[in-house]
Queue: 3 jobs
Job 1
Amino acid sequence: MGRRPQDVEQIAFELIMNDDANAKSELGKKILGLAYKKGIYPSSIHELYMAMGRGECGGFTVPAINLRSMTYDLARAIFRVAKKNNSGAFIFEIAKSEMGYTAQIPVEFASVVLAAAIKEDYKGPVFIQADHTQVNLKKYNENAEKELETLQALIKDAVEAGFYNIDIDSSTMVDLSKKDIKKQQKLNYEICAKLTQFIRKIQPRGIEVSVGGEIGEVGHQNSTPEDFRAFMEGFKEKLRKGKTGISKISVQTGTSHGGVVLADGTIAQVKLDFDVLKVISEIGRKEYGIAGAVQHGASTLPDEAFHKFAESGACEVHLATGFQNMMFDSLHFPKGLKERMYEWLKVNAASERKEGESEEQFYYKTRKKALGPFKKEIMGMPEDVRDKIAAEIEAKFDFLFKQLNNLNNKELVDKFVTLKRVIVRKPKEGSGVVHDGEGAD
């Protein structure tokens, strides 16, 4: 009698619990092979976004959801919501910083998402994105070449893992001390063009990775049409002829990552300028043929704000902290585990405590840092506990899909997005990894 085939959930959990990067990679290849057999393909959303830019589709905003914890359970919940609403346009993402503090390297994140798709019997393209591939201003000023090499290595790892959507965030390089707007954006568009060219060089054959740029650092000064045009003109000048550019632009409209927590632990209300999204999205489509503007830091906004994103023509909205909060604050989340995580923070995040800060503010701000060290314990919670927490968050996913008008677009996505099977071949010594893109089975 032959061995019974391993359930994809077992493989996913083995991958999550394994600390060896090579073992994770091998388990990831196993999951990818199963995904292809089931008609599930890591994909680029580029073609859909360019169709938006041409005015061939629109009227909905794509949710890009950062999964910092319970990734397998919450990805399953998202696929269930997508199937229920006949939605095809939704993105799973993780930022460079999140990969560190949640202990989810690219191959783990992508593989776990694909395992969730298999478990929920989803079919078609799955969009996995590297959010905020961010240039560190201090490190860049100390050694520009080294900082860019670090980012290129991360991008390479991500693309090899099936992240065919990369958000470049060089908005940290915008220099508002300069009077001339183009000079303010100069380092931003130069670095963005350089990293875009790098992505085009390493992307698998037959896949045009979706690349996003950013003109306003979240939590800082609101973006303007002048900022956008200055960035785009400079970016086009710097991008080599014949190379495909960006498909969307991230802007600042008044939000901040994670929201602003008050002394009593509640989230401060923010005034978000939807006109910024509307105007820049229109300019993006009419003048540059891209999908439009992207909103960051939105998950902690009040529920009544979300329907305005689709109305404003925003092509994408990034959602993260709100789901993390729902997990921590769920009545089903084990009290003892939460207490151990908070005790860990008292010691390991002590340097981040500010004078006059309440306990609630300190824990709210830092608790994401405990997700990596306690990842195995969180995923080791009993299945019924994880199911109950996931069900609460699933209801929120469903609400957001409806508010963003992200409904009944599965056929549209299938029409524009080309499915490619990517084979990663072992390269000749010292020549780097070789990707081959084949047509969908």
Job 2
Amino acid sequence: MRPRSISFKATAMIDMAFLLITFFIMSIRFGQAGEEEVKLPDADQANEVTDERTELITVNVTKDGLYIVGGVQQSGGDIFKYLKLRKEESTKNLELVVRGDRKSEFNAIQRIMRISAESGVTNVSLAALQQDDGGG
């Protein structure tokens, strides 16, 4: 009995691999949209959030006082509606992370914190870069 030869089209597999690579590169890029516009201040007691039961919502505050959520510029009213909706729909604890540019006015950050409290999201963190112990 002669062994069967199995053949397949490698071209289709290579095409699929390139499509997957392209998809992952684009999704990583879109996930970071807006973050490069904000230069975080340094903090000596910065901690990472690692709780899986918490849904993080990130609001970037640019040096011009603009609010960016998910790479899209939003008004304070839009952010209030979004937070209120997420609070009602989410089964997880919500945490708002405010990433304020080091050159932004603090009243823009205070406004987001006030909007968060009014929408019912009371867990708010301010993002900062952790300083090196070497006096950096």
Job 3
Amino acid sequence: MHTMKTSDTPFGKVKNILIVRQHHQLGDMLCALPMFAAIRKKFPHAHVTLIASPVSYEVLNSKANPYINQVINYNKQSVHSLLDFFNQLFSRKYDVGIVPSTASISRTSHYINFISGAKVRVGAESVENKINKSANLLTVKKKFFWDEQKLHQTERNLDVVRLIGCDLSLEEKKNVRIFLDKKEESYAERYFENNFPDKSKPVFAFHAGAAKVQNRWNKDNFVKLILMLHKKYNPYIVFTSGLIDGEINSYIRHKLKNHSVDSEIMYKIQIRKVASILRRVTLYLSNDTGPMHVAAYVNARVIGLFGPTKGYEWGPINPQGTFIQSDTENIDDIPSDTVYNFINNYLNKQ
């Protein structure tokens, strides 16, 4: 293991930091938020540049983001977009470059970090027993064994930058957020006024889809659960939706309509505006997927459903977040009645 000593680089003179996380998974990116906060804490005056995929670019590309100064979109769909990417990348001379390989090891990320010219390059030499074949491009590295410790992804990300002295206290971790601007907050206020005019009624939101089929709780389970919740709480019901979730949401809404239960869909709304809406809902129940993490980092009242993935590793850990884990690796082995009782207990504690 090679960890950075104070003598390796004059911390006080670090002007530019590069973080390369160009994976498409939004949840992976958001689990790195505490890591970004720790870097900002250690280097409060440095210019921090983040490389992100088009999928996760929008959620962090905001002047309201206190951790990141610049987000570069790694868009490789055309020669023009790639040229624009490299022009932005080479516009600065980086003192430190970080590749947080916690969920997967990307050669592309390491090559980008290397060609950026970063003097100190930080990352994983191996993860569990998976060797990083690009580890020779790193100057500060360590072999990590996270699974045996059952560490959450946020802690795994922090472990990478702990190599260069970046860390957060427990209280600081609780305060890590997606910060929203006034326009985004105003949008959510108008959305509630237009779609949920009766302020005495609770607003229950759901995300029934997920990119990975094995992470999707059965859509009939959602129907059964929502009907039970409707009978007890008579809430407004709204679904968050990505491009791949249309069929699932249409099916559930049709089934609910047959029972005279109305619902709304948040579709084609910019993700940061969705975040502002979710921050205000009474309850958000979601499969293990990107919007669940978005809700967690605006400290929404979010409950995650977990089957093959582990809640202790990927679950919402915000003060108001929690999760339900299947006793097996099959998410459909979580009964609707179990989720209903869990929600009742959860709301009674709020």
